[in-house]
Amino acid sequence: MNDSLVEALNDQMNFEFYSSHVYLAMAAYCSGESLDGFANFFIVQAEEERFHAMKIYKFLNDRGKRATLAGMNTPLNDYKSILDTFEHGYAHEQLNTKKFYHLSDLAMNDREHATIHFLKWFIDEQVEEEALFDSIINKLKRIDKDSNAFFMLDTEFSQRSFTPPVA
């Protein structure tokens, strides 16, 4: 694996750690609005992002390369509404997808087959993440001001948990 690919994987690993921070900030916003189910949704998202970062960390180490940690920017902490929070989350996932596509392109250009195979899992994961956020945004738009439906969605999200996938 060449140095530029290692650097790009380290950048992605750090972006995944940052993504965890972004989702914790969203959870804090939801908690501040007394929407504990929505907060739980974003806490689970944060756990998933940390898992993704550690997956890259382990891959680098398994390949005999060094994972290097970097500082991170302060995430957005205030939102206009729950819908706004999910729209920001969706945009963040779309950015993450582009970053994985770029990584995959680098690996393909280098004919780095182990990395290509490794990144396929993340690309599949991004399809699921974008679909999840898109679906929730559509639900939030449909329920609009229906407080009962909003409460039901908040309750549903309170049951969400993270179970690391077996890979």
Please report the number of helical segments. Answer: 5
Number of domains in the coordinates?
A: 1
Write the H/E string, N to C.
Answer: HHHHH
Taking the alpha carbons of the first and last residues, their distance comes to 22 Å
Structural class: mainly alpha
Low-confidence stretches: none
The proportion of strand residues reads under 5%
Instruction: Please state the overall shape, judged from the principal axes of the Cα atoms.
Output: elongated
CATH homologous superfamily (4th level) name = Ferritin, core subunit, four-helix bundle
Helix content: over 70%
C-alpha-based Rg, rounded = 17 Å
**What is the CATH first-level class name?**
Mainly Alpha
Q: Any idea what the CATH architecture is?
A: Up-down Bundle
The count of β-strands is: 0
Give structural notes.
By secondary structure, this protein is an all-alpha fold. It has one domain: Up-down Bundle (Ferritin). It is 77% helix and 0% strand. Helix 1 runs antiparallel to helix 2, helix 1 (3-32) packs antiparallel against helix 3 (82-109) and helix 3 (82-109) runs antiparallel to helix 4. The longest helix is centred in the C-terminal third of the chain and has 31 residues, at 113-143. The chain is elongated. The model has no long low-confidence stretch (mean pLDDT 93).
